[in-house]
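Q: I'm writing up a methods section and want to include an example of the input and output format. Could you take the sequence below and give the corresponding predicted structure tokens, formatted cleanly so I can copy it straight into the document?
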Amino acid sequence: MCGIAGIFHTEGLKPVDPDRVRRMCDAIAHRGPDGEGVWTAPGVGLGHRRLSIIDLAGSPQPMASAEGDVMIVFNGEIYNFKDLRRELQALGAQFRTDGDTEVILQAWRHWGIDCLPRLNGMFAFALYDLRQRTLLMVRDRLGVKPLFTARLPDGSVIFGSELKALLAHPSLRREVDPLAVEDYLAWGYVPDHRSILKGVEKLAAGHYQLLRHDAPPAAPVQWWDVSFADRARGNADDLGAHLLHHMREGVTSRMMADVPLGAFLSGGVDSSSVVALMAEASSNPVKTCSIGFDVSALDETAYADRIAEQFGTQHWKRTVSSDDFMLVDKLVGMFDEPFADASALPTFRVCELARQHVTVALSGDGADEAFAGYRRQTFQHREDQARSMLPAALRGPLFGTLGRIWPKADWAPRPLRAKTTLLSLAGAGEEGYARALAATSPELREALYSQDFKRLRGDYRAEQPLVDLMRNAPARSGLDRAQYADLKFYMPGDILTKVDRTSMAVSLEAREPLLDHRLVEFGARLPERMRVRGSTGKWIVKQTMRRYLPEDVLFRPKMGFVTPIAQWLRGPLAGAARGLAVDGVLARTGWFDAARIDAMAQAHIAGRADHSRLLWQLLMLGKSLDLLA
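A: Here is the clean output for your methods example:
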């Protein structure tokens, strides 16, 4: 795992200052403490920071092809590189190293852009072809690895693995995009179709962009998508056998490393499944790491301990204290953009623990998105069935009116939040799912914004890109569209961003075997009954893993990392909550109704209401804006 950065001139072959590229790389040195390198030529500069995982001494970057006509900086892993290497050698390719980076170079030389579907892995890379004088920037299918880009006033394009690499360039403007603030308030993160700064973009998952010196930047091109349009045939046993095959391939392919390797173990279905399959494939005990909480209601370590004992793992665990709020400022520095998923704190702690023992850790991320493991997906499935029973002309007025007058109960489990359900049923399925996924409703945001901010935002609403994505999805049903939205919108923007930044902050490589694209494509073809039955999501995964895992691990309610932010905002962070509306960078923006925020903060601190999610979002937004100023 590594960090990359670079500069490319689209208006001529102006020289690139290598020190400028080096400073961009230095800003992301945590991603690659084992090596560094910069290469420049007229009109282009590439920089790299290396975390050595494979071919530890033999694959420095930037790397040139054996022929000297192609250069690359690469972040990630190609899990099938040995197979590709043999295929390329049969075509006459020459190799000087034993790693995967050189395989990409030769794959480009022999197959051009058609090499991308052949790569099985997680990656973001920039490849400069000296023959064609073009720069190719690529991001992996599902967006495991990030890539930020920006066009500067002088016509150059800069890029980097994190926003902080771009911020190291003195010509980058630091103007906050108000539409990104609307997005952030809606979702709790800035999704991949936008950046917190105007002019900065994120290359979308499964896309590439080709730049030339004598032309403005071409639009990114999608090279991969997942389709829910087809259905696999077979009974549960047959499909379960195929599923297990794909899961095993996903896990074993990601156990390739020349450094110590282990796994995160929460005690849930997904991480336990990964550990079970690792133990099956390994002759040595698997190394596992877990995080617990000193609040018993949030602690899952008993389940992780059981799995560790069952599979004989070498297990380490650490308890996170309820006063871990002291990490807040450190988190803000990791993410650059505002990021309000509070599970980032325990995720960072488990990465810290893992890095003490391994350099690579496998996670269970991705199965909920690929196989319908979230409760909101099962609710969406049921709500779609209800929508189909009543015409929209009746549903809208009936449920809309009831939803508007129903009292708000955000503290309750979703089945008891009738207001949310009624408003969801009143609209189309896509609009209902946007409500289910949102951190704050459009009504709450409208009440929070000042008139000045509403003018800046115009008629843009954060839900519309998600609604459009779902409506245009290659899908058959509402459940398909919900999963498509989670895979394409929520997962890269939230889950994968969280894991990438927290793991890279401690120079740990995290790998997601359940996001092997062959497994994801298989999941998308499954009949709905194999994904959801009754209130049980991820049904076929749980049935298939019964041979490995105990029933109470497979079928207990999903918990996930939970952080006691409500208590923090009534205790050690109460002062910060009170100050949101009256002092600091957030108050100075003039974007929000200060009196309303103050009233919400006071009500939360007094225990009259729970506004912790919104207050946390605003707190993280303010701290991020302070960092970007």
